[in-house]
Design a protein that fits this description.
Layout (H helix, E strand, L loop, with lengths): L7 H19 L2 H4 L2 H18 L11 H14 L10 H11 L8 H17 L3 H10 L5 H11 L4 H13 L15 H23 L5 E3 L3 H13 L8 H11 E3 L7 H9 L3 H22 L2
Parallel strand pairs: 1-2
Amino acid sequence: MTLSHLPDETLSRYFSLQTAGLADICDRPVVTENTGHLNLLNALIDDLFRIYGRYADGSVAAPAIRKAERSGLLLQHIILWQPAKNDPVSNWLKGFLSRMECEVLSFGQLDYLQELSLYIRANLPCESQLVRHLISINFNHLEVFGILCTSFAEMSSDQLHRQLADAGQVPLKTIAGYDSTWMPLKDMLCGWLKEQMSLDDRVAAAGRPLRKLFIDLPVAHLACLLRLFHESKLLGTGTLADLFRQVCGHISTKRQPSVSEGSLSKEFYGVSQQTAARVKGTLEQMITLIDQKYFP
């Protein structure tokens, strides 16, 4: 049986094992000491990806010789790229590409970084251009995500909204990305920005003076209604002190824009018959309204 008659799943598994086996052999001490053998193995890996690239497993960790070879090439690509000192993503990326020989990288990631270095050589991008490109090619390295989040954390709400709009408009060229174990960089950034804006809104709301609810009733009538609610067990199990504090903090009346807890408490415990009669009349008017509206 020839390989062409095998199903794709079987071929993928076969070439994945072949790739992993060759990578393992390349890193064995007995082989690393023989340059000739290393070069032959590296050429064999090249042929495997060139001829059977459809089935070769790019997620296999690349051997040291492969990383050294690509590292030298990438350094040539970025040699003219000089990011500004205050460009955190650009400086991190240049450092990362410069030391990639020491990183644990897969064959696929090496190819990915080579394409990225070619973009840098051709465009010598500024920080904003680079970030947009990294989002578009899904460079979902967590270090980049962390750097961007740190820079966003210092921004105002309006700036965060602009960043979210900008990130959302970047077209995603590929879902595969740099690291298949993480979600796309665009999704991570947009999700973080939305959470940060929500948090900022809650913090701002907590520090903003509340607009009190206006009730067109005297404090005595309000206190009578509260007592009716309390004695009807409609207000839960909180203490009366809590009730007075919450009502006074959120309600204003016709004559008292700021109701004190003392005055509300006094009226609550000292409801007069006259006050009760006025409240009864108000409730009767409300009942009449209910009858007219819902029981015609």
